[in-house]
Amino acid sequence: MTTPQIMGYIVLIMYVKILKGKLHRATVTEAKLHYPGSIAIDSVLMEAAGILPYESVLIADINNGSRLETYVVPAEANSGRVAILGAAAHLMKPKDVVIILSFGFFTADQAKEFKPKIVVLDKNNKIKNSV
Questions:
Q1: What per-residue confidence (pLDDT) applies to 2?
Q2: Is 71 a known active-site residue?
């Protein structure tokens, strides 16, 4: 692989980290401490927010202010499941309302054109609306 150059100068490509997808106000349906760790999310919700299986996500708990990073595993479609798995179960409990955020790295030009998928959920983890 060669380093990109223009007229003998090395070209550095700068990337910015921006919001790619968001599940807003998801309700935690279960928390299982003795599990290898992650968050299980209804696969329909994942798709709506553009979140891929095993993608890294940031989770912010509205109830207690906790924030954590983990990866996503798909849960059964249309189950409404949002399960906190592993050590994170010490930080988030069933019925907590959370925001699940995924990010991507884009060039400045790509970032200017990119629109994140923002999905607002009701208390049963059904889609209220998408932005």
A1: 63
A2: yes
One of 38, 56, 66, 102 is an active-site residue; which one?
38
pLDDT 10s digits, 98-116: 999 999 999 999 999 999 9
Query: Which residues make Cβ contacts (< 8 Å) with residue 34, sequence separation at least 6?
Result: none
Calpha distance 49→102 (Å, rounded): 9
Going from the N-terminus, what domains does the chain have, and what CATH number goes with each?
5-130 (2.40.40.20)
Residue 88, by phi and psi: left (phi above 0), alpha (psi -120 to 50) or beta? Answer: alpha
Dihedral (Cα; 100, 101, 102, 105), 10-degree rounding: -170
Burial 44-61 (b: 16+ CB within 10 A, else e): bbbbbbbbeeeeebebeb
Mean per-residue pLDDT of the chain: 95
Q: Say how far apart CA 131 and CA 22 lie, in whole Å.
A: 10
Confidence of residue 17 (pLDDT cuts 50, 70, 90): very high
The catalytic position among 15, 54, 56, 71 is 71
Q: What is the mean pLDDT of residues 33-37?
A: 88
